[in-house]
Specification:
210 residues; alpha+beta; four-stranded antiparallel sheet; 7 helices; binds benzoic acid
Amino acid sequence: MSLRLGDVAPDFVAETTEGTINFHEWLGSSWGVLFSHPADFTPVCTTELGAVAKLRAEFDKRNVKVMALSADPLESHKKWIGDINETQGTVVNYPLIADPEFKIANLYDMVHPNVDKFTVRSVFVIGPDKKVKLTITYPASTGRNFDEILRVIDSLQLTANYSVATPANWKHGEEVVIAPAISDDDATKKFPKGYNRIKPYLRMTPQPNL
Ligand code: BEZ
């Protein structure tokens, strides 16, 4: 069955390029991103793994641990990482799961048999409570936009702590919307920077944690 928002991200023990990892233990109290790839030695995946390595400091800043999955064996991963480092001008600095029997891929419903026998490009963002906060699925032919993943994490982390939501195309630093459940009176107390009441249900306020 597919994983839904709010479900506990299934725990697993995996062989990875950084040794054997117990997923929940490895996450600890951090946020997590688990993302899958169709196969080793493929062009789009090569660019994606390089892109994530270059963004490692951005994930660290947000207290997010990243882990990739490709269903090929460990020996293959190790050789492929050499190619990634060489061609993408970076060093892969996070674990890559080897899952040749598709155990974890099936646990996370990463194989969509109506398109391919390979894992698709799944992304799971997992909160410190181990619950799934976001899922995105891309086809093999489309490389992901990891700046978008960071943008969503900014929104998830902000809205977990304040009674706000983020509007279309929002980016860190921009105005946010006040949650509809908050009365005008409460909004005045909760948002001392003030707010703009465009409609009773559409109230904009500066990002509260800045
Ligand atoms: C790729 O990563 O380039 C790729 C993988 C599987 C199918 C198509 C492209």
